[in-house]
Amino acid sequence: MLTVDYDLLDVRPGMRVLDLGCGEGRHAFEAYRRGASVLAVDWGQQEVATTAQWLGAITAAGEAPAGASAGVARGDLRCLPVPDASVDRVIASEVLEHIVDDRTALAEIARVLKPGGRVAVSVPRYGPERICWALSDGYHANEGGHIRIYRGDQLWERLAGAGLRPTDAHHAHALHAPYWWLKCAVGVDRDTALVRGYHRLLVWDLVRRPWLTRTAERLLDPLLGKSLVLYADKPPTAAGEAAAAHGALASA
């Protein structure tokens, strides 16, 4: 299940892509299959191990094109193990809401991006997330849980404050919002028949991708989408801007 739109992120073969807070690697896998050189980073040892295992399986199955590469690293998003201006694309999906010092994490993203590079950041959307918090403390008030709810304008300003230029935005996973409301209402740790039934529906949708649910989610995303996704570019250097302007004049 992808949250990021790879066409908006514009991942191309040969690019260096950083997947931050990779979890079990879902976004890293897609970038790898598209021919990128991917580094998946997470603080959790189990998450890093699982991602490495699945990346190896993709390699063994021949699902990644020639020239693509993938690796994993355990690291802190506030101090990334990556040189300055060394990556073309960064993905930070559903991770900033877990980090106390999110401004430092965004500054690190800006640091490692090449001039002209792009980042996709996703966080839980304000409205659906506020309902989850109202229904259950257990949903967020735990070790490693969500520590804030972002408003869209707040995240936009945070990206701009890190020196990045926000460009596009959309919402995703409308069908998942009612599922989490249901879990929060009955208790996040309770495995009721209704919760299991809704979960089976989501798994079926993920595997089968039927027209009906795909159309329904696309129509509902602007209203109920559980995730907010923002895209931002790192401005090119002054020298790069001058070179681009010179090239445009030369070809005119």
TrEMBL record:
<dbReference type="GO" id="GO:0008757">
    <property type="term" value="F:S-adenosylmethionine-dependent methyltransferase activity"/>
</dbReference>
<dbReference type="InterPro" id="IPR029063">
    <property type="entry name" value="SAM-dependent_MTases_sf"/>
</dbReference>
<dbReference type="Pfam" id="PF08241">
    <property type="entry name" value="Methyltransf_11"/>
</dbReference>
<dbReference type="GO" id="GO:0032259">
    <property type="term" value="P:methylation"/>
</dbReference>
<keyword id="KW-0808">Transferase</keyword>
<protein>
    <submittedName>
        <fullName>Methyltransferase</fullName>
    </submittedName>
</protein>
<dbReference type="InterPro" id="IPR013216">
    <property type="entry name" value="Methyltransf_11"/>
</dbReference>
<feature type="domain" description="Methyltransferase type 11">
    <location>
        <begin position="18"/>
        <end position="120"/>
    </location>
</feature>
<keyword id="KW-0489">Methyltransferase</keyword>
